[in-house]
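Message: I would love a firmer grasp of how sequence relates to backbone shape in proteins. Thank you; the sequence and its tokens follow:
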Amino acid sequence: MHASAGQEQEHVLDIRKELAVVLDDVLGLAGRAQTFDEDTALLGALPELDSMAVVGIIAGIEEHFGIYLADDEIDGSSFATFGSLLRLVQDKLAG
């Protein structure tokens, strides 16, 4: 059985929402990440997002989504925007 376009859209929205929860938890954003769109700048724009926080986000994503992010899959561009981070997670979940 194939997923309908509506089901796929819901899945994408769920991943977006779950990623926002991870960011809120790790960075202590008190729900601010729920308002992020794909163009929301992260690295260099959020004072809470420093090098130590990046490590925490990677660990949070791995734990929350049950995926492993290898060092060679991640670079500064992965954290440029909410959308770039979301695409990284979606690509890993898609296999």
